[in-house]
Each structure stands twice: as C-alpha cells, then as structure tokens.
Design goal:
single chain; alpha/beta; Nucleotidyltransferase, domain 5; 5-stranded mixed sheet; two-stranded antiparallel ribbon; 39% helix; globular
Length: 171
C-alpha cells in the first residue's frame, strides 16, 4: 500500500524527500494530509482512485509517530462504520500489503484531495469533537456526488470504493 504524504505532513513527521510511487494499481494508493479541523490537527486520507475520504480528528503529536497504524485504524473504522464487513476490510488490507511512504500520487489526485478537504470543511457541522473517528463526517463526504481520478463522470465515493473492493487482482 502506498501512502502519499503531502509536504506539510512530511514536515510534521520530520521526513526528507520521499520517492515517487511505483504502484500501477491505484486501488492501494492513498494520499494523506494534515488539516486544521475545528482548530485541531487532523488526518485527512483520500483514496486515489475513488476519492473515498476519512478523517481522524484532534491527533496528539505522539500519535503521528506510527502513521501507518494510525491510517489503518482510521480506514478500518471508517469502512466498518460505512457498513462494509470486517472480512472485506481485512481482505483489502491484506492484498494491499505493507504500507510505505511516497510522494503524493499526482496533480490530479492532489486536486481531488483539496476538493475532499473543501467538502470536509463544508460539512464540519457533523464533527464530533469528543471522538477521533468521524463516521458521520466521513459518511456525509463520501455520499456527495464528486469526480475522481479512477472513474468517469460524477458518482459517490462510497460506491466507487466498493467497486474497487469488489475488483480482484489482475482485472
């Protein structure tokens, strides 16, 4: 799995220049960004192919140290809250393999990440300031009609990510 980190997130983690991603299969590529949400540092994760988005809110500095584990915690929580079975989620993570850091996955994907950030900001009234996971916010963002890098036209990120889950290796 490739986790493309924005420059602000690279700085937060104290990382130098990262390599470009090499995976031709964007089903296992995510771009991650640190955003101020409700005045608190939060993780924004956007799937590069479907634009499925999830947020982890108000993250303490120590939590960022193990970003791959934090990301997987957020992804599991978001997908299960969206009604996807734990078995499907675990299967996806198994097929995706070990998480590694890369640069973000391209200008188009970063443009969609920025659009996802705008959607999160517009829907911040669903923010639960007492919780790290944000299932209501995630659901509201992922049910909007949007464009993304891996599909033509408008569609819902939630439905598009389900298509990515259903597609098997080699297809």
């Amino acid at each position: 799995m490739e986790l493309g980190l924005t420059i602000p997130l690279q700085r937060r983690l104290g990382l130098g220049m990262l390599p470009y991603g090499v995976s031709p299969d964007r089903r296992y590529c995510w771009d991650l960004h640190v955003i101020p949400l409700g005045g608190r540092p939060s993780l924004l994760a956007v799937h590069c192919e479907s634009r499925y988005t999830f947020v982890l809110y108000d993250l303490a500095p120590s939590v960022w140290a193990d970003l791959p584990a934090l990301f997987q915690e957020g992804l599991r929580g978001s997908l299960v809250a969206a009604g996807i079975s734990s078995e499907k989620v675990e299967g996806y993570l198994r097929r995706a393999g070990q998480a590694g850091y890369t640069r973000t996955h391209g200008r188009r994907e970063v443009a969609f990440l920025n659009r996802a950030w705008e959607d999160v900001t517009a829907l911040d009234y669903t923010l639960d300031t007492a919780a790290r996971s944000q299932p209501m916010l995630d659901r509201a963002v992922n049910r909007r009609l949007v464009r993304c890098a891996g599909f033509d036209g408008l569609g819902r990120a939630e439905e598009r990510f389900l298509c990515c889950l259903e597609r098997r290796e080699g297809q």
